[in-house]
Structure prediction request, 1380 residues.
Amino acid sequence: MRFLRTLVGAAGGLGLTLLAADRPNVVFILADDLGYADVGFQGCRDIPTPQLDALAAAGVRFTSGYAGHPFCSPTRASFMTGRYQHRFGYENNIAFDPQNTLMGLPVAEKTVPERMQAAGYATGMVGKWHLGAAHLFHPNRRGFDFFHGFLGGGHDYFEVSALRPMGEGYQTPLDHNGKPREIDGYLTDDLTRAAAGFIRDHRGEPFFLYVAYNAPHTPMQAPQERLATFAGISDPKRRTYAAMVSVLDDGVGLLLRTLEELGLRERTLVCFLSDNGGPPTANGARNDPLRGGKGSVFEGGIRVPFVMSWPARLPAGTTFAHPVISHDLSATALAAAGIGADTLARLDGVDLLPHLLGHDSRPPHEALFWRMNGGDQWAVRSGDWKLLQAGPNLAPALYNLAGDLAETRDLAAEQPGRVDGLQARWKAWNQGNREAFFPGFSDYHKAKNAFYKTLVKPTE
Amino acid sequence: MRFLRTLVGAAGGLGLTLLAADRPNVVFILADDLGYADVGFQGCRDIPTPQLDALAAAGVRFTSGYAGHPFCSPTRASFMTGRYQHRFGYENNIAFDPQNTLMGLPVAEKTVPERMQAAGYATGMVGKWHLGAAHLFHPNRRGFDFFHGFLGGGHDYFEVSALRPMGEGYQTPLDHNGKPREIDGYLTDDLTRAAAGFIRDHRGEPFFLYVAYNAPHTPMQAPQERLATFAGISDPKRRTYAAMVSVLDDGVGLLLRTLEELGLRERTLVCFLSDNGGPPTANGARNDPLRGGKGSVFEGGIRVPFVMSWPARLPAGTTFAHPVISHDLSATALAAAGIGADTLARLDGVDLLPHLLGHDSRPPHEALFWRMNGGDQWAVRSGDWKLLQAGPNLAPALYNLAGDLAETRDLAAEQPGRVDGLQARWKAWNQGNREAFFPGFSDYHKAKNAFYKTLVKPTE
Amino acid sequence: MRFLRTLVGAAGGLGLTLLAADRPNVVFILADDLGYADVGFQGCRDIPTPQLDALAAAGVRFTSGYAGHPFCSPTRASFMTGRYQHRFGYENNIAFDPQNTLMGLPVAEKTVPERMQAAGYATGMVGKWHLGAAHLFHPNRRGFDFFHGFLGGGHDYFEVSALRPMGEGYQTPLDHNGKPREIDGYLTDDLTRAAAGFIRDHRGEPFFLYVAYNAPHTPMQAPQERLATFAGISDPKRRTYAAMVSVLDDGVGLLLRTLEELGLRERTLVCFLSDNGGPPTANGARNDPLRGGKGSVFEGGIRVPFVMSWPARLPAGTTFAHPVISHDLSATALAAAGIGADTLARLDGVDLLPHLLGHDSRPPHEALFWRMNGGDQWAVRSGDWKLLQAGPNLAPALYNLAGDLAETRDLAAEQPGRVDGLQARWKAWNQGNREAFFPGFSDYHKAKNAFYKTLVKPTE
Prediction:
């Protein structure tokens, strides 16, 4: 692997630049709990996001871009493997427990960065992991040469504490390749600097960089001076949210500028998306005009801002309307890195490039699928049609998204045949899934506390 | 809260000094396992405590001042809430286990520092917490803006070790607002410096400071040079004890001097007491002429040195003879900070000020109560009379403390009616109590090890 | 103890040098998984070990020197106590679990360094402990004034990580008297420097130093420049192994030079041995011409390079052919330090000095014994004869090592009487043993994970 990288580097030095040009750098930028309607290129009015808008303008905006799951940890599991996370039972939001070596992205699953490493890429990750806190799940052990971030599902934006970590590890020291670190200033800025540093350090070799901002996830914290620029927003939660998104936008700008200054922008594939829909109550996000939000299989829970830019290959200023899903980006990156077709065929994600370049005019997927809580909620989208079950024991509802983006008119009663067809399709897909092998974090803590309760009880 | 504090500060700046003067700073100084007879103002001869004596001379000495419990952790639970700790099942000495989030001062209980914060006070704690080691019980999460100390029931006076903590955490790094710290010199001096620093940092606003020295609790360790000044004490344990108390006395002196230098002494309510009676065998403390010591409901286990000084309001050089208890200080501080009467009425502690100033000539309490080990031991004091049960299945004993401070003459047989009356009173009080919700630390470790024993056993 | 040390120091200063000369310094150097054939003085050709060869040439080489166990942790348990580890149920390779206070060298067992401390020695340990990771088993609590090393069964040679320790703690920060430390360069060099520092710091008083190198145990990691000098070895594992052993040899050289420069070499008893036979598959070690390796009761698993040098007392360039075992060195050191005969008589180790000096012409032991896996494997050696059972339900095999060092000719069928006699002897020895009180590390983790599996399972 080290040898392979050296070779690639040497080849570049000898003028064989075609190789490097053909194999782009890849930068994945993931926002956390960002709403569908909360960036300029999605029509947002109260939060300027000039950098993200420029990124979207420089590439392809996906108007039906989906997250792999209505919430955080499972989306990341599919994003990091290129497979539906249900294939390996990763369906719940994982608890933070560094002692538990059984709970994390299964080590049997080969990760995207592992495959990129094998293809000669330098691999780096910055930000939120949320795929297991025990040592064997650490990003440095799952394919990332470089890691600067944290292992839990969120983090305080200013403070770390070695002795007083909040529940779920929100104040654990930052983890810099396994060494503890303070936050340098505001966390989003700290992460941006680490990401830019990785780009600079690896300018001379192909690299894969995964920037997983925790912004604008709770806790709602923003730098005072940035908050001041949003004084016009009266709702304090939305005001803080706006400031958090605005700093994130700055960060994306700095990363793009860094690529440009190093002459790498042309041959770098940059993707931006959110890990799930926005949760209006928790952080003030907005998903208009979509129905629902984070934790729901309605569009508001899964359809997200979704952009891909690769100046050397992809036309600027375009949109793509066929449904795509976050782990398509994983497959696209692997394909661009030269991973063999046989490997890609074993993934659920699809290489989008042929579809974007018009080499393949079919939609990337015949259907996309979601499942939550062991199937209590699920959805399938095929073409403009979407069938979903919004809760346990509810009848499936059928929507035509072409004319009813807000999912207000249930057509199930009118089109029982279509309902049956889509439901059969979902069931067939679900045949290949496994039950969740760990519970969600609150159930987990309940079970763990049950053990402690055997210790903590009256002596009498 | 921040706003409120600013207001108070601004009001002070505008000359509305009455407000600040009316609402004193509050400094609670708690010694740990200090005997009833081990300070000069209690008649001690072999350990000079000029600073504590001066403090007592400057205010009110309580001749029947009691700790809320015969041992450490429960006294602190009542001290930090203003309520009898049995109200919420906090009856045992808590084990040190940062992993156990179920064991600590219940989060449902509002703490004194939380109430002081809400009243606009800056709140700081220095020293021994001993009310839960898991993150959610951390002093910074229970009302203290500032914390410098440790979470367990004691600490080595010189050494910390990140990798080799003694049982019960006696060598964990000091915790400075959640960040690890070495001890700077001798622990008692280190704590004094942190407390003085807090006073200086908050000179311009009302503050509540809780200085919980672990001296003279075991381990018996004192600076070499201070030990030398007690060469005349032949018993080595008492010699070390004397040196430890002497350094503690210096510390109190430095705090008082700091207040004076900043011009705050007049308007600062300073209290000093011990968390329970001295344990002669463990640390060489003396409780003469009282019977028993730490861990006993005889006077030696609960009657402690007890002083309150507030030059702006309280006359110097006075004594107060009616029985009072540690959580009366909590109520007094809250009342002085302007906490409403309705809140105070829900506490068990009583605002002592009206009694000390003669506005209320009744005794603060009709009776005081103690309970240990689920009721195996208990005591009630009313007026000069005390009824106690010293162990399981023992008959209650009745003493008249006016003539029999040493509790040597059991009058129970002579006064069965008084016995019945006092016992009925204790039972009525006990109706409002809960059973302990966690075991004492040795039972806890036994139970926890039982789990490990399921792992550690022959493979055969 | 402190007084005793001072006395000895003062006596030395007054010219009473006989005392100090009579009581040597003791330096135990233990290699980890070093093969029988992998040092020059054992005939190794591809790895130069000039320093170890010089050490062997300066003292006594034991041609039948045995480790107390075919693998690591139990050998160390006997080495640190002077007793067969089975006496106290220490039969398995211990897991790394700092939370488990029940699993380690039993605190009821008095350690060699504790006895040396009591005899007035400064005691230091450098390197791999592997006798329990919970606080109460820490070397500083088991007799070593000074410790610099790590608590688990192995360690990365370059990296530590506070947040990302490998399984079994291979990347925990180094532990320097309980404080975390980075590795300074290559671990073997770091340990050597710490050991040399201890020698310098204690040049003026008798000292006991235990240098437990983890080299050449896995992970296979060596400094690049040293690897280069072994480019002639084609097998990459053996090449790395050779480099690791070579750096270890340098380290021993530096320690010997340090002793010489301080004028201590004459009166220092230096021992060198391996903790068990080499594991050829794991690290490329060789045990030729012996059969088997680490984990086996054949000679390759237990017979190791074994040297003792004490210039003031022992002749140079000699060999000793009678069977001896690692904990004989413990007894020899204790005897040399003046520990009473009554204490020594309670140990299984034997003071070798009288045998080496010809004061006692008998073999040190009538027989030596080994036991693995609760008796599934066992061996006894008496004179040239060895009876062993190589696995569960196998018939014992009898070898005459005088003519059959490679254990190829089983004579059990020819000499049933000798088989019975040796087996009876082993059984008699085994009467005094206890069953293992903790399982091997993989069984331990299996059992611990069984608990976590009660937490990690489908929510449905």
Q: What stands out?
A: The two ends of chain A are 63 Å apart (CA to CA).
